[in-house]
Amino acid sequence: MEAHFPMFTSQPIGFVSSPYKNTGEIPKGLGVKHEAEGVLKILPQFEAGLTDVEGFSHLFVIWEFDRSDGFALLGTPPFDNRAHGVFATRSPRRPNPIGLTTVELLNRDGLALHVRGVDMLDGTPILDIKPYLSSIPAEKLRRGWLAEAEARQKR
Ligand SMILES: C[S@@+](CC[C@H](N)C(=O)[O-])C[C@H]1O[C@@H](n2cnc3c(N)ncnc32)[C@H](O)[C@@H]1O
User: pTM here?
Assistant: First the structure.
C-alpha cells in the first residue's frame, strides 16, 4: 500500500558529539559493547522538550545515517557468512537511513546530554530522543540469525 498523503520532512533536534571521526574507529562485531562517551547537543529551540529527561537512566536516540551511501536490501555482515535482509540487520545502508541507539544518560547540563554507549560518528544529526523502557522479559526475546552466528563463534 502506498502512502497518499505527504510524509513529514525530518529536521535535526540536535547533533551528536562523538569521539568517532571515521567509521573504522567504531567497534564492530558479535557481542561488541559500546562504552564510548559522547554528548547529545540539543538545539536551543527544543530545550523545553528535555524537561524531566534526567529521571531516565537510558534513552533511545533516533538519528540519521547522514554519511551512508544508498541502500542494499540484502547484505552479508562482516561477522557472518550469509546475506540477511536489511530489516533483519542494523546496517547503515537502509531505504530510510535511520539509526537507533540505546545510551546510558550520565548527566544533563542544560542542552547537553552526556551519555555512554555512542556508536555514531561525530556530528550525526539527532532526529528524536525517547526514554528507554522495555517490558519484554529476556526469556521471550529471540535473536534470529545473530544467535546462530554467536553460537558458531563460540565453537
Ligand atoms: C551497525 S550501525 C548500528 C547503529 C545503530 N545502533 C542502529 O542499530 O541503528 C553502526 C555503524 O554505522 C556507521 N555509522 C555511524 N554513524 C554514521 C553516520 N552518521 N552516517 C553513516 N554511517 C554511520 C558506522 O559504521 C557504525 O559502526
Answer: 0.94
How far is residue 68 CA from its own chain's centroid? 14
Distance 38 CA to ligand 1 centre (A): 14
Q: Which of 27, 14, 31, 51 is nearest to 128 (CA)?
A: 14
- The answer to whether 22 and 122 are in contact (CB under 8 A) is no
Nearest CA to ligand 1 atom 6: 101
Using CA atoms, how far apart are residues 73 and 66, in angstroms rounded to an integer? Answer: 18
What confidence tens digit (pLDDT) does each residue in 35-79 have? 999 999 999 999 999 999 999 999 999 999 999 999 999 999 888
Give me the amino acid identity at 24.
G
149 lines ligand 1 (CB under 6 A): no
The preferred substitution site among 119, 127, 132 for testing ligand 1, maximizing ligand atoms within 8 Å of CB, is 119
**Distance of CA 127 to CAs 2, 60, 130, Å?**
24, 11, 10
Cβ atoms of residues 34 and 118 within 8 Å: yes
Spatial contact of 60 and 102, defined as CB atoms under 8 Å apart? yes
